[in-house]
Specification:
The protein has about 350 residues and is an alpha/beta fold. The protein has eleven helices and nine strands. It has one domain: Alpha-Beta Complex (Spore Coat Polysaccharide Biosynthesis Protein SpsA, Chain A), CATH 3.90.550. Strands 1, 2, 3, 4, 5, 6, 7, 8 and 9 form a nine-stranded mixed beta sheet that branches. Helix 3 links the parallel strand 2 and strand 3.
Length: about 350
Amino acid sequence: MPPRPFCRRGRKSSPEAPAASALGDIARVNTAHTGNDRLNSLTVIVCAYTDDRWETLCRAIDMALKQMSTDDELVVVVDHNEALLERCRAAFDDCIVLANTQRRGLSGARNTALRRARGAVIAFLDDDAIPLDGWLDALRAPYADQRVFGVGGLTRPRWPGEQPKWFPAEFLWVVGCSHLGLPTVQGPVRNLTGANMSFRQAVFEQVGGFAETLGRNGKRPLGCEETELCIRLTQADPGALLLYDPSAQVEHHMTKQRKTFGYFVRRCWAEGLSKAEVSRRVGRSDALSSERDYTRRVLPQGIWLGLRQASRGDLSGISRSSAIATGLAVTTAGYCTGALLSRSSRK
């Protein structure tokens, strides 16, 4: 039998630190742990907010625990849901269970867990993302290179039934998955994505935590908090390397709602609004650097591919091409709206 990972139930762990209003307080709290960390120790953080994902949450925790070593720990943080908090504390004896003491939402929950995390590397996992075999080893391995400050992996969609034929692979980011256009082998990227990512703890000591005015809050489909953090890091330390490694894989479970065209449009609009806020924070050049290449190279290829497929008899190709054009237009409109609102608020 493999050695039991270092994980403890939240009630038996040390008391939670008081809530912090500033992102920089994460660095102050975690610095106290640095001397006790081993080079390869890792903390897996899973954020939960709803009982609707209980089954996938349990499976995610089980699969993560099976891949952890004796110096690792797993932290479950519950976002302002007392009933779910008690359910997690009763069920997960092998984990540290915390209540979100920060602002409601994914970013606040992550920041709460960061203030407790002891690992030299921090991995983040969604409560509806199931790690596949080898996930944790693939995330951990690149940190042998001291230039590497973050590693993310491939997030595969697990649809209820088949993927909608109109849904273009270029827009899988809409449902929190890896989209067409990302590297097919390990390589550097501007930013990592939340369902499957990791960072050195030193990142948070250097630049603070996640911006709590960004990110998902309940069913509001906002995002880009990971993008903002990654850009903030590389602006502070241009030598910091962020890697995407498709061998580190998770399976992201989709709801029926995410198969609808209405969700697709709402999520594109929210992405535009979020990117406008990121641009305001870190500058438009860095905030849109990857999007420019994606828009100029990936999307036109996707549109032409759909049209060619339609000419060969696959009429759903027209739907995919139309969805790409619609997604680009709606995201752009959301960005422009967000930029105008930002300018108005500064006057």
